[in-house]
C-alpha cells in the first residue's frame, strides 16, 4: 500500500491587483497534495483580487483569504500569513506565478535542509497553456548553497536581467525561523526575500538547491519587482549594513556583503541623481554629485552604461520580455544541471 502524502506545507500568496492571475496561482497550490493550507493576503488591491481568490476555492477547506484595507507591502503580507498559519513548512508563491505539478513532492523528497529551492522557469503569457509539454526535465542534482555563494549570486550584471538567485522560492522550516527570530523585514519593498535568506544563512541555515523545475514565473514588464522606487534601493543597501553588524561573520562573508552593498548603493546613487535632475534640473543634480564625491563613479558609470545599453546584446537567462521567441528560460541555466532522460 502506498503511504498517503504528508500535508504539512502552508503556501503563502501575497497579492496586489492580481485578479487576472490569482486563480491560477491558487489552483496550482491546491493541486499539491502536500499543501495543508493556502493563505492568500490581498494587500490592498483596487481590483477584484479578493473575489477572484475566493472563487478559486476547491471546497477542501484549505484556502484562507485575508484582505488588508491598505497596501502594506509583500513582507508585511507574508509575515501576517506566517502568523495566522500553523503548518511546519512554508512555501512562498507570487500571485502571478504558479507551481508545476509535483513540485512539493520533489522538494520534500530531499533531506537535511532548513531551506530548499528548485529551478524556476520564466514564461510569457502565451506559453502558460502549454507549459507542461514544453518544460524541460532536469535531474535533481542537489547541492548546498552557502552565504558567500548566495550573496555573489545576487549581484546582477548589465545585460543580465532577473537572473539573481534571490528569486528562488524555497520551502522554509518554521522551526528555524522561530528559533532565530526571523521574519521578513517589513520596511523593505525590494529584496525582502534576499534579506531574509541572507540573515538565515548568517545564522547557520542549511540551504539546498535542486535543479528540477517546479516553479513557473510569468514574465511581464509591469511586475512589481520591476517598478521599485529609489528609496527601496536605499533601504536594501542599509539592510546589508545591518547584516554586516552580525558578530559571527568571517572576513570572506563580510567582503561578499560589502560587494553587494556597494552594488546596490551604486544603483541608488544613479537613481537619486536622475531623480534630482528630473525634479530640480541638471544644476540641482550636479550640486548633489559634486558634494558627494564618493557617488561620482557610480553616477558617471551608470550614465555611460545607460547610453550604451542598446549596443550590447542581452545575456539574460530570463529577460523581462521574451520578445515572442517562445523559449522557456531557466533561472539555474548554465549550472551543472543535466536533463533527465
Automatic annotation (TrEMBL):
InterPro entries: Glyco_trans_2-like, Glycosyltransf_2, Nucleotide-diphossugar_trans. SUPFAM superfamilies: Nucleotide-diphospho-sugar transferases. Residues 10-131 form the Glycosyltransferase 2-like domain. It holds the Pfam family Glycos_transf_2. Signal peptide: none annotated. The keyword Membrane does not apply. Gene3D superfamilies: Spore Coat Polysaccharide Biosynthesis Protein SpsA, Chain A. Keywords: Plasmid. It comes from the Bacteria. This is Glycosyltransferase 2-like domain-containing protein.
Amino acid at each position: 500500500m502506498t503511504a498517503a502524502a504528508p500535508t504539512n506545507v502552508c503556501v503563502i500568496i501575497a497579492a496586489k491587483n492580481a485578479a487576472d492571475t490569482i486563480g491560477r496561482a491558487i489552483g496550482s497550490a491546491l493541486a499539491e497534495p502536500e499543501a495543508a493550507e493556502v493563505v492568500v493576503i490581498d494587500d490592498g488591491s483596487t481590483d477584484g483580487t479578493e473575489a477572484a481568490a475566493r472563487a478559486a476555492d476547491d471546497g477542501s477547506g484549505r484556502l484562507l483569504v485575508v484582505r488588508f484595507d491598505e497596501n502594506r507591502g509583500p513582507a508585511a503580507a507574508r509575515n501576517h500569513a506566517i502568523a495566522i498559519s500553523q503548518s511546519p513548512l512554508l512555501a512562498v508563491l507570487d500571485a502571478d506565478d504558479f507551481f508545476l505539478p509535483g513540485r512539493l513532492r520533489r522538494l520534500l523528497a530531499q533531506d537535511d535542509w532548513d531551506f530548499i529551492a528548485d529551478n524556476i522557469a520564466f514564461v510569457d503569457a502565451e506559453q502558460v497553456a502549454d507549459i507542461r509539454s514544453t518544460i524541460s526535465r532536469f535531474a535533481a542534482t542537489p547541492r548546498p548553497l552557502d552565504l558567500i555563494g548566495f550573496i555573489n549570486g545576487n549581484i546582477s550584471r548589465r545585460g543580465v536581467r532577473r537572473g539573481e538567485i534571490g528569486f528562488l522560492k524555497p520551502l522554509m522550516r518554521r522551526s528555524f525561523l522561530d528559533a532565530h527570530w526571523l521574519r521578513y523585514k517589513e520596511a523593505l519593498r525590494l529584496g525582502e526575500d534576499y534579506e531574509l535568506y541572507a540573515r538565515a544563512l548568517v545564522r547557520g541555515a542549511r540551504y539546498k538547491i535542486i535543479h528540477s523545475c517546479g516553479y513557473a514565473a510569468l514574465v511581464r514588464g509591469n511586475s512589481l519587482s520591476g517598478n521599485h522606487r529609489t528609496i527601496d534601493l536605499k533601504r536594501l543597501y542599509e539592510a546589508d549594513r545591518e547584516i554586516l553588524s552580525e558578530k559571527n561573520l568571517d572576513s570572506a562573508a563580510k567582503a561578499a556583503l560589502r560587494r553587494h552593498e556597494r552594488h546596490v548603493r551604486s544603483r541608488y546613487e544613479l537613481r537619486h541623481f536622475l531623480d534630482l535632475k528630473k525634479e530640480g534640473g541638471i544644476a540641482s543634480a550636479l550640486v548633489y554629485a559634486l558634494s558627494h564625491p564618493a557617488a561620482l563613479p557610480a553616477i558617471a558609470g551608470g550614465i555611460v552604461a545607460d547610453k550604451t545599453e542598446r549596443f550590447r546584446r542581452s545575456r539574460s537567462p530570463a529577460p523581462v520580455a521574451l520578445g515572442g521567441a517562445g523559449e522557456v528560460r531557466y533561472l539555474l541555466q548554465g549550472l551543472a544541471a543535466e536533463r533527465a532522460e
